[in-house]
Amino acid sequence: MSKNKTKRVAVIDVGTLKSKFEIREFKSDLSSEVLYKDKQLTVLGRDLDKTDNIIIENSVQKTIEAIRQFKIKLSEYKVDKYIAVTTEAIRKAKNAISVLKQIKAETGISLTTLSHEEEAEIYFRSVSKDFPDNVIAVSDIGGGSVQVVIGKGKEIYEKYLFKTGTYYLQEGFSKSHYPTRDEVNAAYKYVKVQLSSLQRSKYKPALIVYGSTNIIDFLRRMKVDLNKKDTHNDHPFSITVKKLLPLYKKIISLSYEDRMPMYPEEPYYMWAADKALMNVFTIAEYLKIEEIVPSNNNISTGLFLSLQNEK
């Protein structure tokens, strides 16, 4: 980027549950300002386990409509460069090729499908820059899958990929809008079995960074007692498993509808917030970590890091 010149870049991220969009303006010193953000519930990965891994047309249309709206903003804000990606839902779907062609034909936007490994590495590097001197475990807990990456700085030591995403657990273990204690316990047991390979890790991370997108906002809205760290980066807070447990117990005692008013900014997040915490608690247990650092970073954050230096 030339001296004194700004560049506007955007990221479209189509996930299992939501399609996210963000535009940033980068200055020559690589500092940035968020110009526009949007997030829409498009559920591209809805009911894949019930449809023989076929993405249903209703979800495709919701995604197309969201991308059309994002495209209008690309023009309105005169974006110089953008990237559009998709992840778990498309990776799993049998009709992925036809869905991608349909989205391209109806929006003019081509989605790049990230592999599990690419997704994990992009997110790790968006976070690890704030902890250059520590070995850390970074967990991106999505709707379809969960990635755990252990490393330090720009170096990745181990990568783990699990089928324990929040929407996947919700659909697989909840038969009604009021999960029973047996259903909750069954989901938790499944998570512990799936994540058991973490116990064989050769490394001892100092902390877990847990994301993505809204976790800091969520915990603050839940009035969780976060420990404020003396830092000016993206990760100013930390908490322990012990302090998170009361929130988990409160959530699982409520029906989905009764949970929703707890977080009016994103009420449907509450349907599976307990499943995210199941993953976090299990990672902490298996890696013997006490400190958890919440993160609002996501795949988009990492993609912006790569876009900002491109000519």
Description of the molecule:
This protein is 38% helix and 23% strand. With 311 residues, it is an alpha/beta fold. It has two domains: 7-114, ATPase, nucleotide binding domain (Nucleotidyltransferase, domain 5, 2-Layer Sandwich); 129-299, Exopolyphosphatase. Domain 2 (Nucleotidyltransferase, domain 5, 2-Layer Sandwich). The strands form two sheets. It has a seven-stranded mixed β-sheet with strand order 8-7-6-9-12-11-10, with helices on both faces. Strand 7 and strand 8 form a beta hairpin. Helix 5 crosses helix 10.
Give a topology summary.
Elements: E1 7-14, E2 18-26, E3 32-41, H1 57-76, E4 81-86, H2 88-92, H3 96-107, E5 112-113, H4 116-128, E6 136-141, E7 146-152, E8 155-162, H5 166-173, H6 181-194, E9 207-211, H7 215-221, E10 227-228, E11 237-240, H8 241-252, H9 256-259, H10 273-287, E12 291-294, H11 299-307
Parallel strand pairs: 1-4, 4-5, 6-9, 9-12
Antiparallel strand pairs: 1-2, 2-3, 6-7, 7-8, 10-11, 11-12
Helix pairs in contact: 1-3, 4-11, 5-6, 5-10, 6-10, 8-10
Number of domains: 2
The CATH superfamily of the largest domain appears as Exopolyphosphatase. Domain 2
List the uncertain runs.
none
Largest sheet, in brief, is: 7 strands, mixed
Mean pLDDT: 91
* Helix and strand composition category: alpha/beta
Share in helix = 25-40%
CATH architecture of the largest domain: 2-Layer Sandwich
Q: Indicate the radius of gyration in whole angstroms.
A: 19 Å
- Strand content is 15-25%
Using the alpha-carbon principal axes, give the shape.
globular
- Count of helical segments? 11
The CATH topology of the largest domain corresponds to: Nucleotidyltransferase, domain 5
Strand order, sheet with most strands? 8-7-6-9-12-11-10
Rounded to the nearest angstrom, the distance between the terminal CA atoms is 6 Å
Reading the helices and strands in chain order gives EEEHEHHEHEEEHHEHEEHHHEH
